[in-house]
Amino acid sequence: MKSQQLIWIQSFVYVILISFCLYLIQTLISPKLLLAHLNNNIILRKKQPTLPLRFRSDGTFKILQVADMHYGNGITTRCRDVLATEFDYCSDLNTTRFLKRMIEAEKPDFVAFTGDNIFGTSASDAAESLLEVFRPVIESGLPWAAVLGNHDQESTMTREELMSFISLMDYSVSQPNPLAGDTREHRRNDIDGFGNYNLQVFGTFGSPLANSSVLNLYFLDSGDRAIVDGIRTYGWIKESQLVWLRGVSKQLQGQNQDCDQLFGTSSHVVPPSLAFFHIPIPEIRAGPLESIVGEYQEYAACSSVNSGVLQTLVSMGDVKAVFIGHDHTNDFCGYLKGIWFCYGGGFGYHGYGRAGKPRRARVVLMELEKGDKEWMGVERIKTWKRYDDEKLSKVDEQVLWDIRSSR
Which residue ranges does UniProt annotate as crossing the membrane (predicted)? Predict the structure, then answer.
């Protein structure tokens, strides 16, 4: 009888001890294991940029285009196509330094990354590499957006996972695909690729257009690789993407019917748009280009499929310039049927280039028209490039579009 009582007492004590241990784990230990615990200084909430995107009080809006960073694993990833006399040691950190220099020098309002942000075969962990790629712009607090190239998905993440991850990063305004309801005809699941979206830039505070979009930015996924008729080729922008693009353009133009007030002119010019994607269209290779500003060093490595991108952009009427990457030694702007197609030029040191020729970046500046008392719509779009040399040399400045001229 006494042994049974002793067993019962022991069991009771065990239950009490286990309950007490569980209580300690729940109240004292578990909170410290949570990522969001305040003492860990880890913030899960995404840091959002000030939205909407907006022109400055001086009537300008500046975009820094970063093309083909080709980031690998950081300091252990060596540079390609640099002279031994240029650097004691060259790695991905040189790419990071260049981006920091450009942000400090140009003080852009927005940064657009146009694909091959990482070089998948050299990046052992895609997420870690992306965090390093975008770290300088995140630390600057600037709004930024990205599209994918043909090498980004060659590491540890799919294209869908990459765009989802990029969209969740601090100050990113990227989207995996259009938000549901962006157009009546198409929803996000109906569109090929990942990274198709548009961003609107509003007028200056205090102006009549403070609550109106005066500039639109289109971002498109141009794909990676494909097999056509048994032959390997590059990806292309699909018809579903073009249908979405035409729909968005039509909607935006419908929101700006009063062009006389918007632009201070009777020419009925719609608000201008810019487009960003990675792989060039076939017409850039086939030509003829009416004008070329910059260096044309290699044939455009485009798809064998012509999906009608140029015809779509021309028919829309609002796109004044397109910004692309992919061909690193090209940094020219070429004029095709009323639209400028501009290469960003090779930015990253792990991507191929030309030994002895500095890496470069492109800057795009929009200027508003000055009314009698306030800023109106976009009057002019300019661009130039900067080399990653001692002086960040500024080259090939040109006007891409002016409201008072056809070019």
Answer: 6-25
